[in-house]
Description:
- The protein is α+β, with helices and mostly antiparallel strands.
- It is 25% helix and 29% strand.
- Strands 6, 8, 9, 12, 13 and 14 form a 6-stranded mixed β-sheet that branches.
- Helix 2 (47-58) packs across helix 3 (70-80) and helix 6 runs antiparallel to helix 7 (223-242).
- The longest helix has 90 residues, at 131-220.
- The model is unreliable at 1-7, 62-78 and 384-428 (pLDDT under 50).
- It catalyses: S-ubiquitinyl-[E2 ubiquitin-conjugating enzyme]-L-cysteine + [acceptor protein]-L-lysine = [E2 ubiquitin-conjugating enzyme]-L-cysteine + N(6)-ubiquitinyl-[acceptor protein]-L-lysine.
Amino acid sequence: KHPYHSTNVYLCLQNYIPPQSLTLSCPVCRQTSILPEKGVAALQNNFFITNLMEVLQRDPECSRPEACSVLESASAATACQPLSCPNHEGKVMEFYCESCETAMCLECTEGEHREHHKSALKNQLDTVRNRLPQLTAAIELVNEISKQLSERKNGAVTEISNTFDELEKALHQRKTALITEVESICSTKQKVLQVQLTSLLQGKENIQSSCNFTEQALSHGSATEVLLVQKQMGERVSALARHTFPENPHENGHLGCQVETDGLRRSIQNLGVLITTGAVGHTSVATGEGLRHALVGQHTTVTVTTKDKDGELVKTGNAALRAEIISADGACTEAEVADNKNGTYEVGYTIRSEGEYSFSLLLYEQPVRGSPYRLRAVKPSDVLQSPDDVKRRVKSPSGGGGHVRQKAVRRPSSMYSTTKKKENPIEDELIYRVGTRGRDKGEFTNLQGISTSSNGRIVVADSNNQCIQVFSNDGLFKMRFGVRGRSPGQLQRPTGVTVDMNGDIIVADYDNRWISIFSSDGKFKNKIGAGRLMGPKGVAVDKNGHIITVDNKACCVFIFQSNGKLVTKFGARGTSDRHFAGPHFVAVNNKNEIVVTDFHNHSVKVYNADGEFLYKFGSHGEGNGQFNAPTGVAVDANGNIIVADWGNSRIQVFDSSGSFLSYINTTADPLYGPQGLALTSDGHVAVADSGNHCFKVYRYLQ
């Protein structure tokens, strides 16, 4: 009966097992099994062994023992001979009862096993039927969301139509006002001119009349007739000769209309933003100790990261997220939601009394994954102090208060944890960093400019080491070139660097006051700008192959042809739109517009390819879109402008019109005075972290 031993042990087992025993201990392997209610007689037969024994009994003397084995015969028996039902003679067992975990024949299915199948099928039916209410609720929810979407679409279309109708009305009113004003000015001027014209015409007519009369008298009149009119005509002619006529114009013909449409057209092109996300609750997640634990009276935050239906990160904000914190007695605690505009949100709250709370996070009224959470609030005095608690009170290096000089190594999370609002709560976007302070390959001393090439290279201006270093996109050192000196081909203080469409490396040399051009393998080719430049800092190449350099000392921008011929120059020292105060770096967007960081004016200014001012953005401060001396700048394929904020040690992202979008998270390994900035060919942001003597590459969520 044991599954691994012979079946002919029935009598032995009966003698072996004590009467009334509920268990069976196998005499061979000592494995203990529970006996059926009817004892040994109810044990299942081992059909494999049974068939094997039948084969051996049927063929006791095999004529070719070398050609067939017992196992082969057994396999043949199990493969070709169906199993017989022990309860119904001659019936084949071709069914299986899952409830009893045993094989059975057709007659068995009509007997004791009949109810088993009905019961199993009923259980399955109940299980699947129980899903109907869930599906009904899901259908109602999806239909409701679909209805809301249609209603909001209609509302958005109505709002767009109304807004543009009002704008058209305003434009029409302005058009009418301008035309009316033109007509009025013209009418006034015409009246003045008509009065003058009438006077001139009258004078002309009087003179012609007097002249004709006098000529007639002289030609055809007798001496007596001439004597009679002489006095009268003489006085009249004399009076006309002395009369002052308004011969100079009393008005001018100047009348026109100047309508500045460039800014308006740009505004119209960017007018209106459609607000939507693909975020859904069941894939979005919340993180932070504040989901489960809080200290009474202390502000606590958690982070919600939104995702779409496929679990992919949503990279835009404006999702409808709200929080509910309810105590056991039904009292609500107010929670604030801060939108980081990058698909993540900070939920902050302050619990006023200790106890248990239900903490729900609802995204579009649907719970995020794991919500609601069981939150427990305790008094600060009830929490034991630990070394980690002390560390958490150390002020974050990115939390303001000026620069914190530091070794550029990755910090443990406890060093920068804070309950204050983080600028960007995504874990960390740093991919890798390269370099420490030094003079060897892959080491830097006050690196400044950084550029990238289409063939996957990162080029760094190592300023105080007077050289250029080249790396692959994944940070592997490739080569270094440059010799210190003031002769052509030598470097004295390389600050800016860029790579042109031919792969040539163009270097702005601040102390040599010129631009050096090297081949992709570092061989000197030419220098330009000597005698014109006073202190070039940043350099870029536009779509026409022109070399654009920012002269930091002269506070202007030069545009050269690749052969060194000057195309144009614009800017001077000052604070106006066309003036600069220590400009640093330059980039060119896909419209061939020139983007310049104005260091001491704390702004970014944009010009067309001819140097005409277009617009600017930024002001002095630490808020979103503000700068404390901007340095590096780059523009992505969508026209977004990425700016290194030197004094605030951060990187900010703006749209093509200069509106703030987001930060690139640098909190885990803080920047210290970032300089040059560029986009790699694989879409990441490379920044020269000058104060930490390294460059870093970050993920950039376009």
